[in-house]
Amino acid sequence: MRYVVIGASAAGVNAVRELRRLQPDAKILLVSKDEEIYSRCILHHYMGGIRTKKELMFVEEDFETRYKVDWMRGVACTGLDVHEKRVCLSQGAGPSYLSYDKLLLAAGSRTFLPSVEGLREAGGVFGFRNMEDVEQIVEASAAASHIVVMGGGLTGMDCVAGFLHMGKSCSLVEMEERLLAKQLDDRSASAYQKAFEEKGVSFYLHTGISRVCRDGKGAVASLILTDGRELPCDLLVVTAGVRSNIEFLRDTGIACDNCGLLIDQYGQTNVPDIYGAGDITGRSPIWPAAVKQGMVAASNMAGVRTTEDAFFASKSTMNFLGIPTMSLGLPVKPDDSYEEILEDKGELYRKVIHKNGRIYGAILQGDLSYAGVLTQLIAAKIDVSRVKKPLFEIDYSDFFHTKDNFEFYYDET
């Protein structure tokens, strides 16, 4: 069996590991535009000088030999022939072709500049998706006096943290009413906003950028916000727009939509023997989800039927300025048919959202020690409406017993 994996980030790398575990003698080829494997989740650590390039690596130093994978570095996939089962590659003097029995598409995503007047024409505008972006930002920031980050999601907050590590102040513009709107509620988001403001960061929330003004040399000079204010800016980092890397799939018959590649619960596309995982799908743009999708796809490629339980694909953990936080599922209840269980003790904040006893979301901030119990409650599908004592006071002994092999089990009686 000959497996080809396109993309060497979270989904692709973990797919290689899983394929090798399940198929010790198979041929595995990994194709990536990157020359190195590194974690994009902690690029801000490299930006701020906390980690070296080597310390961004999330694979073993002997990755290629340990997993017996042929890694083609610095090579772009430019197209597919699904009938001949060939991948078209751009390398050297011209294109070449690589045959496969089964193919995993894990080509990731890229920065997309929104349709804002003057944004795409201005100099001094950068994305925040890869090592090249970060190195350009570090170089440009040396002479910058007015740095602005566009987007208050996880990537935007990473970028702001990176500037603080560099000793640089900055401003952030976000369309939503709070930071990290997909992960946090008003209470937990405000803790981060206050902490960053104390470090000198200025926030412009519930507003966007309507126009980018340029100086005589074509570089960004200021931003006109949607509320009419003008914000000085000589370096702009855009984290608000992302697009899946699916251009090379055009005219292949592989189904995509406005978000990205379409896959089912097994990671399978609509074309036999072609699978997908990670940011190329445009649906679960966080590291744990990409890892899980890569492993699920690899398992099914190897003939071991596995499904993805994507209900809590939105699980996120973060730790900005010494404030650890975990977000799971829904950050706020959609309507009054859902119930909330809250505990707010200043630096410690915990919330669980449930409906008919089923947990749909949770936020833990300040102390994540309850995460283990919470995970067991969800995994065991325990009806939290039947909990007799305060939810945040339970421990394993309240619900779980141990088998002879020390595994936990739950007895509803």
Overall pLDDT metric: 89
* Molecular shape: globular
The neighbouring-strand order within the major sheet is: 3-2-1-7-18
Rg result: 23 Å
CATH topology category name of the largest domain: FAD/NAD(P)-binding domain
Number of helices: 10
Largest sheet: 5 strands, parallel
Low-pLDDT stretches? 405-410
Structural class: alpha/beta
Indicate the topology.
Blueprint lengths: L1 E5 L3 H13 L4 E5 L11 H5 L5 H4 L6 H4 L2 E4 L3 E6 L4 E6 L2 E6 L2 E4 L3 E3 L13 E2 L4 H11 L5 E4 L3 H12 L5 E4 L11 H13 L3 E4 L3 E6 L5 E6 L4 E3 L2 E4 L3 E3 L29 E3 L10 H15 L14 E5 L2 E7 L9 E7 L2 E8 L2 E8 L5 H9 L16 H4 E3 L5 E3 L3
Parallel strand pairs: 1-2, 1-7, 2-3, 7-18, 9-16, 10-11, 10-16, 11-12
Antiparallel strand pairs: 4-5, 5-6, 8-17, 13-14, 14-15, 19-20, 20-23, 21-22, 22-23, 24-25
Helix pairs in contact: 1-8
Cofactor: FAD
Organism: Clostridium porci
Protein name: NAD(P)/FAD-dependent oxidoreductase
Describe the structure.
Residues 405-410 have low confidence and may be disordered. With 413 residues, this protein is α/β, with parallel strands linked by helices. It has helices spanning 10-22, 43-47, 53-56, 63-66, 131-141, 154-165, 186-198, 287-301, 371-379, 396-399; strands at residues 2-6, 27-31, 69-72, 76-81, 86-91, 94-99, 102-105, 109-111, 125-126, 147-150, 171-174, 202-205, 209-214, 220-225, 230-232, 235-238, 242-244, 274-276, 316-320, 323-329, 339-345, 348-355, 358-365, 400-402, 408-410. The protein has ten helices and 25 strands. The chain has three domains: 2-110 and 243-310, FAD/NAD(P)-binding domain (3-Layer(bba) Sandwich), CATH 3.50.50.60; 113-240, FAD/NAD(P)-binding domain, CATH 3.50.50; 325-410, FAD/NAD-linked reductase, C-terminal dimerisation domain (Enolase-like, domain 1, 2-Layer Sandwich). The strands form seven sheets. Strands 3-2-1-7-18 form a five-stranded parallel beta sheet.
